[in-house]
Amino acid sequence: MNASDSPSAKVSLTELDQRTRGAFTAPTSGERAARLREWLATDPPADDVAEVYRELATRDKGAAKLVKERLDELRRARAQDALAAEWAARAEALLGAPRLNLADAMAWQRDAAKAGAPLSREPLAGLRQRLTERMKAIEDLQTRVQVEREAAGLLVQRIDLASTKPRAEAQAARDGLAQDVNDWRERQQGLTSAAGWADLDPRYPNQLDAARQQLEAVWQAFEAALAQAAAAAEDPQAPLPGVPVWADEIRAQRGEPLAAEAESAAPVPKAVQALAQAALLPAIEALERELAAGHTKAMSRYAGELRHAHKVHGRHAGPELDARALAALAKAKELEDWQRWRADQLREGLLAQAVALTQGPEAERPTGRKLQEAIRQLREQWKQTDQGGTSNHALWKRFDEACNQAYQAVEAWRRELKAHNEAARQSRLALIEEVQAWTAAHAASEDWKAQLRDLHAFAERWRQGGHVSEKIFAELQPLWKAAIAAAHERLEAAQADSTARRQALIAEAQALAAEPRLRLDAVKDLQQRWQLEAHRVPLDRRKEQKLWEAFRQPIDEAFARKSAEREKTRAATSRLDAAVLEAARALEAACAADDAQQIRAAMAALRTAAQGEGATADETPPAPTPAAMSAETTAETPAGAAAAASRDAPAPAAPRPVVARRGDDRPGATPASAAAAARLAPAKPAPRARPERPPRPEGPARPRLGDAAFRAQRQALERAEAKLRQLAARAHGEALTELLAAWSARDAARVPPAQQLGGRQAAAARPAWVQALGRAAAPASEAAEPLLRLEIEADVPTSADQVDARRQLQLRLLTRRHEPGPAETWAQDVARVLATAHDASHERRLQAALKVLLRR
User: Fold this and answer.
1) Contact 787, 833 (CB under 8 A)
2) Is residue 333's pLDDT more than 60?
3) Orientation angle between helical segments 784-794 and 803-815, nearest 10 degrees
4) How confident is the model at residue 675 (pLDDT cuts 50, 70, 90)?
């Protein structure tokens, strides 16, 4: 009893049929599929879909396929929802952290895309947008920090430049500098109060704070020096400012000597000069060493150290060391300017390459992975360019925008690649399911060749299943290996059994080859068994070839041994082969001479030579005498054979009563005379017992002929027998032609001799034929009845005008009991025909009958 027959199952089917709008009770498969599509369009719960699929899987596979597809979609949707929830939690954790790390945010997008999370659907789409905005805000803040840091440096340079100018110009530039400093302070405060300030890497706030402190210190010192200079200009007792230019200007106003003159006038103490040289000389040597080596990375640092040391100790180190320091600083400045110019050139080249990725010719633009690698290489080259000199933020911003614009094509390619990977993954999963179904369907199959072809096809489809990511491949590869291993299990077991059977056949071949006498029937049987096994179970090509060579080797060695022995025997029997070949050539010469006696003698000689040189005299047949040869010739001709048979036949028994019947002269029918002759013919004697073969004489075995000698003997004998038959047929035709010519000329001397006529009856009737030709010719009309009797006996057709006469004669013969038939009197009928006058039509009829009768 099936589960579907139970009341609960019926109730569940009824409920499912109501849920699916009558799909289970639909009369046709097409209508069932249409109702299922309508039901699936309402988005039923996953449990209902699973129950419907379980019931339909064994009822209608075509309709169940639709439900299976929906189940797969729901399963994938659940997997996507789980991934979305997992990556959404990670994104929320990133967004909720006190500080957002750019590297973590970029890694989240990359890893989520690799994992196959639905980034284009909510909530991941919103979270991705939020992360992108936060990342963009952080990058903008970083750029602004770098810009403000550079601006602070430029302000410091302007303040330093103003301190080198006259006091009036510095006083005039003070208001503009103050405004710029205040503006920079406001921008700096705006940056620190921005929303993403807390997400910045700590190095950026530290750099901005260091720039602020430097600017504040320089600005305060500038204002203090400017105020001190104004006070010293008004009050002669006031101290001079620390700015040398302003101090010299005030000294000139006061009439005091300049500081350079005072310093040059005052000698520098040797201790101070030694300390200054000790502090300045290592910095000069280090910078000169870097300049000589061509190193530009450390040159800027050494140049800064030397510049600072020269500012402090330059005036005390002496003119020679001072000039040396100034020359090193000038060369370093020139190299720095050249490096900055060269770096800008390289950056502009990289910028042009980045722009060409999106705006270049369509045929020259890279796509896909090449475009991704090109963008990565451009960014790496930009980083290397920045490491060797001062960065250029304006070019960097343009370069970054060009790279981001080009990366949009990379993202589109990655989305397409992801879709392709997913399709390849689904196709590979479907292939795994197909292999599993195939394994279950062929659990009892014994067609190993077809199974091997199918498995090869599955493996080829797996290799060509499309590209998938390493993670997906690592997930699918164990499933595929397990499925294909299960599919190969029965085939591998059969191959193992076949290998064992072939090893047994190899052992049999070795044992057979080890026997002293090689049995060909056993070899053939063994080879047939091997072929059957090879056709039944296929093996790997290399393994099968190795087993076949192992099977063939002992048999080949045995045949080689047999061939060697045969060669030895052939060497021993070379004289016998020569004699047989010579006899065969003599027989061919006799056949060419068209002499039957020579042919028979040569045949006897060939048979004698084939028996071997050691044949005794009594074993050699005697040479045939002419009489015997003539007798043989007579016996070999058809007519002679018939005559011999008639002589050897016993006397006929008493005739049986004859009943008159109508003759049948239809084509192919047995003539009445032949039937009567068959009835009147004596019973055939019992077959003679075949004489027993005499025992083989004791002594050495007869040597065996070589292949060439044996073939020459056989071919020569066959040609000789064919030649004898040809000569016998030719002699028969000539005898018949000569007999007809003798009748036409009424010349008894031209009648052929008895030996040429053939059988015994013809030879016995020759005197009567001669007497008939010796008498005067009777009228030709008397030959009508004898000719009909001859045609009846020879069973040859009669001309149309004599058909009625032939039927009457046949009927008359059937009604006459004791009168001999044509089979007994055909020789006398020939004499009666020859006694009549020659007639051309009679000659043709007689010739047609004698062609048959003389061969008997």
Assistant:
1) yes
2) yes
3) 80
4) very low
Tokens of 87: 């990556």
Longest CA–CA separation in the chain, Å: 200
Residue type, 256: E
Give just the sign of the alpha carbon dihedral 54, 57, 59, 60: positive
CB atoms within 10 A of CB 422: 15
The DSSP code sequence of 532-545 is HHHHHS---HHHHH
Tell me the two tokens of residue 549: 């060579």
Quote the CA–CA distance of 217 and 645 in Å, as a whole number.
155
Give me the long-range contacts of 55-63 (CB less than 8 A, separation at least 24): 55/12, 55/13, 55/16, 55/24, 56/23, 56/24, 59/24, 60/29, 60/32, 62/29, 62/33, 63/23, 63/29, 63/32, 63/33, 63/36
How far apart, in Å, are the Cα atoms of 5 and each of 33, 60, 309?
24, 18, 104
Give the pLDDT of residue 638.
Answer: 36
Q: Are 512 and 518 in contact (CB under 8 A)?
A: yes
Instruction: In whole angstroms, give the CA distance from residue 823 to residue 792.
Output: 9
DSSP class of residue 817 equals S
Q: What's the whole-model pTM score?
A: 0.34
Look at residue 499 in the predicted model and tell me its pLDDT: 92
Nearest to 775 by CA among 798, 747, 755: 747
Q: Would you state the structure tokens that stand for residue 623, as one six-digit string?
A: 């040479």
Q: How far is CA 188 from CA 151, 194, 200, 608, in A?
A: 11, 10, 14, 134
String of DSSP letters for 198-266:
GGS-THHHHHHHHHHHHHHHHHHHHHHHHHHHHHHHH-TTSPPPS-HHHHHHHHHHHTPPPHHHHHHHS
* C-beta atoms surrounding 332 within 10 Å: 22
Helix axes 124-162, 203-234, angle to 10 degrees: 20
Residue where the block lists tokens 């001062």: 390
Q: How many CB atoms lie within 10 A of CB 331?
A: 15
Query: Which of 178-187, 309-318, 483-492 shows the lowest mean pLDDT across its residues?
Result: 309-318
| 57-83 per-residue burial string, b: 16 or more CB within 10 A, e: under 16 | eeebeebbebbeebbeebeeeeeeeeb
Mean pLDDT, residues 306-319: 77
- pLDDT per residue as tens digits for the range 722-734: 878 777 777 667 7
- Rounded to 5 degrees, φ, ψ at 778 are -80, 165
Q: What type of residue is 699?
A: G
The partner residues of 836 in beta bridges, in order of sequence, read 778
How far is Cα 371 from Cα 429, in angstroms, rounded to an integer? 31
Q: Half-sphere exposure of residue 801, counting CA atoms within 13 Å on the CB side?
A: 4
Question: What token pair was written down for 377?
Answer: 């290489």
pLDDT in tens, 566-584: 777 666 667 778 888 888 8
How far apart are the C-alpha atoms of 353 and 714, rounded to whole Å? 93
> What span, in angstroms and rounded, lies between the C-alpha atoms of 73 and 712?
85
Backbone angles phi, psi at 326, to 5 degrees: -65, -40
Q: Does residue 634 surpass a pLDDT of 70? A: no
Query: Is residue 762's pLDDT more than 80?
Result: no
Question: What's the mean pLDDT in 100-123?
Answer: 79
**Higher confidence at residue 681 or residue 846?**
846
The pLDDT tens digits for 819-841 are 788 888 888 888 888 888 888 88
Within 294-409, strands assigned E span none
What secondary structure, in 3-state letters, does 759-803 show?
A: CHHHHHHHHHHHHHHHCCCECHHHHHHHHHHHHHHHCCCCCHHHH
Q: What are phi and psi of 389, to 5 degrees?
A: -170, -170
